[in-house]
Task: structure prediction
Amino acid sequence: MASTSQKSTSLPGRTALHGKAMTMHPNPNSGKPGLVFCELAHLGKLNMRADKSAGKMVKSITGCMFPPAANTFTSAGERHAVWLGPDEFMIICEAGKDEELASSIQASFGNRHAAVTNITDALAAFHLKGAAVRQVLAKGCALDLHHSSFTSGDAAQTLLSHAAVTIMALADDEFIVICRTSFASYLHDWLLDAALEYGVKFNK
Amino acid sequence: MFKIGKSTSQIARLTKNSRVDQKRKISFTFDGTSYSGYAGDTLASALLANGVHLVGRSFKYHRPRGILSAGSEEPNALIRLGKGAYAEPNLRATQIEIFDGLYAESQNRVPSLSLDIGAINSVLARFFPAGFYYKTFMWPASMWMKYEHVIRHAAGLGKAADDHNDPDRYEKTHTHCDVLVAGGGAAGLMAALQAARSGARVIIADEQNEFGGWLLGEANISIDGTPALDWIAKIIDEMAAMPNVTMLPRTTVFGYMDSNYLTLNERVTDHLPERPAHLPRQRLWKVRAKQTVLAQGAHERPLVFAGNDLPGVMLAGAVRTYINRYAALPGQRAIVMTNNDDAYRTGMALHDAGARVTIVDLRAEPKGALIRAATNAGIEILAGHAVITAHGNHRVARVEIAPIDDTATAIAGDFIHRDCDVIAMSGGLSPAVHLHSQARGKLQWDDKKLCFKPSTTHEASFNAGAGNGTFDLASAIKEGIRCGARAASAAGFKNTMADSPSVAMPKQSWTPLAAWNIPNGHAEGAGPKAFVDFQNDVTANDVRLAAREGYQSVEHLKRYTTTGMGTDQGKTSNINALAILADALGNEIPEVGTTTLRMPYTPSNLGAIAGRDIGHLFDPVRLTRMDDWHRSHGATFEHVGQWMRAWYYPQEGETMAEAVNREVLAARTTAGLLDASTLGKIDIRGPDAAEFLDRVYTNGWSKLAVGRCRYGLMLKDDGMVMDDGVTTRLGKNHFHMTTTTGGAAGVLDWLEEWLQTEWPDLQVYLTSVTEQWAVATLSGPNANKILQDAGIDIDLSPTSFPFMSMQNCHIGGLPARVFRISFTGELSYEINVAARHGLALWTHLMKSGAAHGITPYGTEAMHVLRAEKGFIIVGQETDGSVTPHDLGMDWIISKAKPDFIGKRALARTTMAYDDRKQLVGLKTKDPQQVIPEGAHAVRDPNQPLPMDMLGQVTSSYHSPNLGYSIAMALLKGGHNMHGQTVFFPLLDGRVIEAEVVDTVFFDPKGERING
Result:
């Protein structure tokens, strides 16, 4: 009989893109690849259902301000709070901190009608960086991703090619893209293909 | 005066400055013959430089045809470009840029251009009048398929690629801008520059390989004191340096849809001899523009006279373009035939290039600077005359000219003969109003300029330049600036209008003489052919015949005669056809109206529309966390929605039936393990969660104890079964709902819709957790032993972990949420772990179960196992027209609840009719015969057709546990048919006989549920 005292953290945990090898298509015009991307392994993701009145509590526990407007996110270090709906947002936190954070938030609710659900494993996150990142995303996304219209701190729930995604602009040339885990392999392949003309590198 | 150059091959090449680079020679092949041209040539200009005019045969009569135009309006010079899988038909020679090794073939000829057997149709032409399809092949109707085959073979345009797998890469992209400018001529460029200087995001697209529009084909025009093309180059340089401007040459704006959404086709590498693998051949741009400026320019109209379709008969502006832009002289003995001033500039260009020129002007007394210049140059001008007939074999050789009356409708004197090798004709200009019209803009007739031009717009757009009927260059540029300014300002960018540049060119009139159909001296319907639509072989007589036969609407005329159809969509023919129809009807042109122009402006490659939505990028395939294991253990898969689920796991040498039987038996004798991760899962929280479930399920939920599970059936508001699944109470205000795999997304949307629109008072939050959990279902008498060996840290005895309950625990150290529920009727556990541990759980269970006969089973075995127990699958036993009562599941309808979705619908009288299709079990008379799913039941297999149909089989399998074939079916009045015999006549003539039985075939008392 196997030990029942074994801790879950020491057990093998697979990410969405486990098994995808490092891939490189050099920039045909020389220089850096236009897109460098990787998976943010086990990035913590909590779905929160609560209204604005939870703002103070969210700030005190996560450090992030309540997102000020629709389709925006706030940040505090590696943590982000992403607006998803009038009473729905997503807390993003460091890998491995999701359970702990979810418990503290849950405990702080008291009698408030609110919900926090750990969806860390349900969603996969990509980190995208490079001079061509906006052009690559534009090939699969109908929103206006021009740097004058979609700036850092902006988020959108949309389609990237045929996958539902949440896109977050971290900087001019840096994005986080979040999708359902089962679409991660498709998006990985799509990104490699769409960025071909600019050069692309997928890092483990 | 320019001289014909020395090159022996390019016999009609001029030595003069032009847009071709005479230092860069390029070889290409047309119809098996090698030719040379220069960088900057189109296929058309290179062929003309080689003295080649004959480039195609016409659609219906197989008449020899030559190059008519120098642009995208070309109806004749359609080419099949490339070989094998790369071949593409119906490309316009006037737009194909040549490159080394280019391979082109003419179309529509058997066996060759100069000797075409289809030309017999021309001799038989009087048997092929307008509407000949409809007249000739009406009867008998049964023969149409045969006729059509022959007609399609004889007619048709071009031949598709030899291999349907297009090896080229195509891409699509979205983009947004403040101002999109369609057309990069003088007006478009100035509009773009004006808007760009204001800071607006500007896209300017032009279908040609370089910007400049018709000025590329002009000489002797200067703007702001410099040659026009130098002035253009300065504008291009300024915009190229602006980060807010995207300049897209070789890009056709081909579609203008609602809300200023436009589609552009960019030919990225078509002009290159080698296409780099990392670049798309073509790119489809999907543009959302705040404002548009349409500056598409204008198309010159042909004149309609006998023999006007001979090779060598060209549009006057095109002749000028070939001389100035490409240094190719289309002929040395030229007739210029015109109803306006503009063609005089072609006469001058021909004259300056060394050709002998006669200008035949339909107007009795042409006046103005251009006429004086031509006269001073010593050019012969025959005013008040018309070319009555052009003659020639494969190229025009001779014309008959005669004086005509003031209205150009009757011959008024004796014939004059002239030899010639080219005719440059001009019937006036038609603005290219295509995008404006696609976008529901209105048109108005200008009875001075004799053209339709844009009036009111429907979308946020402005029209500028020749496309707006503003043909005069200085005015067009001014209009471009004004439209650019207005578009930028409407998009929110303040700007001050740039000064208009000064334009130096001879003054000319833009008022042509209305001369739509040149008289031929014969009675109506007689005489040689004068073509209106070259691509569709429609003559002036065809249009008049259609009018005589009662076709009064231009839309009907188009469909009856096919004028304006085809790849060119009548760019050169529509107005002439319309004018002749108006004349035949004795009506005015604006009263007859024009057809609506639709997308695409020019044909667009389907490859570009597909882009990278091909192969594995066409549709995402979703894989579970255990997928690696299934694959490495030889599983076969089936698609369930976008998911790939393990179907069965054949061992060496096993058939599907053998594998499924083995899996089904194992689940009832030892243990089976199923990957159930794809089931939809919804986390439900809030003080009103139980009330919410009471409203969406048919049964009661309020009294469900914490930690207990319940099966639920969800109805649409029409009372029909929509989804089912087990929902568990995790806490007082906390539930975990499961849905079918295929229904997961739809159910969540459905529930959210009710919460947000109907029951905003309910405090309930929903969160999808489908992919948060990986699920392995362990089923069979050895399940407990396996879990114990796997290290489960809870007591599994039925008293402490009863059926239909849930416990949190650890299995081999993995935190797990285990549901004791069963879709097989056996002792069964649905084990949920965090998805990252899915594969670890699976491999751990397989290892722990090895000694206990654990067998992985796929979806097929799952279907058999549940059918043995009579459990339904939503979407298999139901089709959106099945009620719980039809399924024999009245027990799940709560009588106590005040309401639930579908309750009112279930109370309708029709829902209680005895002859509704109701679910029954079937046992075949021959136990080895499995009825095909979908087979229809009848009472009497010998009943004459049409037989009375009772209903259909929804599920059917061989049951290895029972040793006979079992099935479920929806039969009319099925609940009262138990014990009766029904028959299933099959397509192959067999008839299967079966007895109607109860749906529960195996363990009807449920004695196996505790192992």
Remarks:
- Chain A is about 20% helix and 35% strand.
- Chain A touches chain B through 55 residues (CB under 8 Å).
- Chain A has two domains: 38-121, 122-204.
